[in-house]
Amino acid sequence: METIFSKLKDISKRQKRYAGITIQQIMPSTSSNTNNMLLRRVYSHTKDDATVGLEDHTKTLVSELLKEEDRLCVVSIYGMGGLGKTTIAKEVYNHRNIKAHFDCYAWTSISQQMSTKEVLKEILRKVSTLTSKDMGEMNEVELVGNLFRFLGGKRYLIVLDDIWNTTDWDILKPAFPNSRGSKVMLSTRKLEVARHADPMSFHLKPRFLTDDEGWELLCRKALIPLSSDLEECGRRMVKKCGGLPLAIIVLGGILQSKRSLGEWENVSKKIGISGHESRVLSILSLSYEELPYHLKPLFLYLGLFPEDSNIPVKKLVRMWMGERLIKEQEGETIEEVGRQCLDELIHKCMVQIGKKRLGEERAKTCRLHDKMRDLCIEIGKKENFFKVMSHQNNDPSSSFTAVFLKLRRCAIHVEEKGKQYVFPKHLTPCLRTAIFIPKDLSIKYSPNIVYKDFKSLKVLEFQGELKPEKELCGVVKKLSNLRYLSATRDRYKVTFEFGNFIGNFVCLETLDLKYSHIDESMCKVISNVMPQLRHFYGFGIQLSEINKMRRLETLWSARAGPWITDLVKLTNLDKLGIVRLDEKTIRLFTNVIVVGGGLDKLRSLYLHTETEIEFPSDLLEYLSEKIHLLKLGLLGEFKNGKLPSLFPSNLIKLYLGFTNLSEDPMPTLEKLQHLLFLRLYDLYLGKEMVCSAKGFPKLQNLQIGYSNQLEEWTVEEGAMPCLTKCLIDCKKLKMVPQGFKFLTMLQELKIFNMPKSFEQRVKEGGEDWRTVQHIPSIIIYNYREEVSEERRKKEDIFLDYLWTKATI
Residue limits of the Disease resistance protein winged helix domain (predicted)? Predict the structure, then answer.
């Protein structure tokens, strides 16, 4: 009885403590109503505004792609840059009828310097079951063969965006089988490329916008009503844009902050009336000139990245931080200031959103239109802000020397295997950022940097494979002013032999060694000499102590040990991943949560236990008090094969795996009111599962994998009303839940590694067709090699999860 009263009292305390707190209060926010308004304006139009005047093109292309043909047809969109080719292609690609018509589909961007292997890998990731690890050692011939085999017998759609020459098409063409009315849609600036790819198929050249369409687009981008006292001046500017959508969109970004007729007239005077290309350049240049001073270097910095790059926002902001291009403001973290600056560049239509963050309208990745990137490179070269180098132009001539003496930043785009990239000696005293980006991530390269020439270097990033480990040591061992160091590979479980010299990095704020094991001796040095460190990424980081790492915000992911006791001292920790927890260390972690009151700012947490180690029954109860915790991953078993009744109530993302539950988890999980993403892997040993009415009110993405005992799944009417994506990998499941017919928002259903009998049920004419016929895209993956026991080890699956599928 005393125990019951004690629990009731504890619940009462918690209710009072957290009364009135909502998820909106704990999500990231800006410091003023003005900034909040800005964010709403930034993202309110990202999907549809740019399609003004392009609707007829979309209808035409959808009709062409849906035609039944007895051969592979290549449908092309061609025309000058800024005409809206990519926008049209995206509208077509995402069209409901297109998703319903094709068995599988993939989108990839080509760019001027095509990396054949990366393009093939990107397509394979979307149409096959192969992972990055599976494809890591494949050559071009093997990749082409695998893609041809996966696409064989399917009706597929492949979009090749921004293909520049006929040679690129000739290289990719053998990967596409002639099967079942399949289509390739490409966009290009050259009619020659379109005709070469398929002279008999349909070629669309988007028209220029009419004056009325241009004015409507400008109003949407400048955020003014169609009827306005600014209309006469606005229409004159639209006419100067010549109906080119990109020019009008960027012009709208310039005018967003201007509301007087005088300001609009001043802008109009600065716009030329020459040919289309010159007008675009004139308007793009004006958009840069109109930027506030503090945003100009941030915009130019984006030009360091390759064409068509999806740039992770977190990485970009931390690079800005490393160079002190952004500064902390009162009441806001420096990273939030950086995000606000990026939001403003997006708001001004100078930067595009790549992917959005889960549960938010803000960008997770961003990108530049190729015309904007051209502008970046031109201005960057003129102002010695940065230079893009390759092996071909790495020429230490006298003119090159003069440039290097003043150069602040450089991006080295590695193109050839085995080549050395050597900076001219004594020519780079001002260099602050150096980024090595291989055209193909499998290229091994050996950068050679001389310390005395790089004493000002603050940001250093290596992508791909360095050759060999000692070369990396030679590059970085004396760069004591570094604030950002990243050495990431497209490989697994690599060990970097840095040695004790890493202790020279006393200024380091971000250390990103994804895929890399970091041994205890190296960790000891890091924890003792890097008090400024904010973000620490690796795999199986072997920490011994963390007492001096008080500024740490990210620790991802560390091997469990006695150091866990000191987590309570890391009061700024936002993201934490711990692997290989045993009975002792998981109790230490629970004590940190319970007794110390630590980790109150934690927003992302991932825990992975050793085999047969159970999560304590009270861990979730105490975690449920962490109101800022939004993303949670638990890989390991629960006591008695049953989920705890309490989960953190504000979760938006949850991943559970290897739990061996004997009871249906859905009655507990469906009560999470804010959950948007749920992945369940090897979770449940039972045969029946039920999602009840009103359960999962906000869930958008559900993935159920390797649940090989599940036979019957019931989805009641009213369950998961917002579900848009679902993946099923349950070998014994007899049928699609009949309740799927009520999931009217469902856009994509993936059937993964299921028996042929199940696949037949969801096809047209099958027993479950009426249940799923409203779903635009049903994708069946019916080829997969059996997963070996070694491949199924927890640490491998956990690693896949951390770095490929669900990195947050």
Answer: 304-376
